[in-house]
Amino acid sequence: MKTILIxxxxxxxxxxxxxxxxxxxDKGYKVVLFEKYAxxxxxxxxxxDCDAIIIRSDLAxxxxxxxxxxxxxxxxxxxxxxxxxxxAATAHNVVAMNTPGQNSNAVAELVFGMMISAARxxxxxxxxxxxxxxxxxxxxxxNVGRYVAEIAKGFGxxxxxxxxxxxxxxxxxxxxxxxxxxxxxxxxCQYVSLHxxxxxxxxxxxxxxxxxxxxxxxxxxxTARKEVIDEDGxxxxxxxxxxxxxLSDIAPDCAHVFAEKYEGKYFFTPKKMGAQTAxxxxxxxxxxxxQIIDFFETGNVNFKVNK
Length: 307
Ligand code: 3PG
Hints:
single chain, alpha/beta, Rossmann fold, 2 domains, seven-stranded parallel β-sheet, 12 strands
């Protein structure tokens, strides 16, 4: 009997776990739950006997792959797989997958939760602003970006997007105005919502030069990764632009500076919350289980992300 380890420092909703277990057990797989672990070394110890692993933002390091002697497949139940050492997975002959699109709506809804709260000054009783009529720039028009666009249109916002990998006609067909460069997106839009992955090219790419071109009342919403922000740049932006607000699903490393100097100008979730809904957990968790079963039963590697 093959064993699937669900290793989640930040656990899935209980209802998601029970549905994942049911599907796996019905197909003859054993499921081992390993949640809320304290140390990375505990994760390394937990993987010794499993054939498959499901993770979220958990760090699948070289040490994890070294320790997981029976491992054939690891699935990141979510979109971003920057937490997996892909070279180590490949070196160990392990297939690494993600479950794109499954938690996207949850992330998009958080974008609006944070934008509305900031527009109303955290509901402090002072006059705020409205989203209707404002320009929203979507930086990367993937699964989350498309949901953000859909919701934004309901709010009466004008929606722009930059994504060199998506045809302009597709954006236009969805009521989104495509722009030709990152620079054009930021200089056009008062609100920018970030949906780029953290890669060697994108890390620290959101810098002062780019942000400072944003119109007055600028708001940057980051539900992507903290690593894509140039933290010196964003601190300079906070210092130079009293109108600027930064909203992020997970605090930057320099969060203490924000706390000391910029109260009311930022919001950070205490723990990454974008995908933390029952629906997103069910969708991504079940997709992960099904992809593992399909891989073992038929060899399907559709969602493979390593070479
Ligand atoms: C993703 O990449 O899918 C999101 O960042 C969600 O991450 P999480 O599963 O750790 O909440």
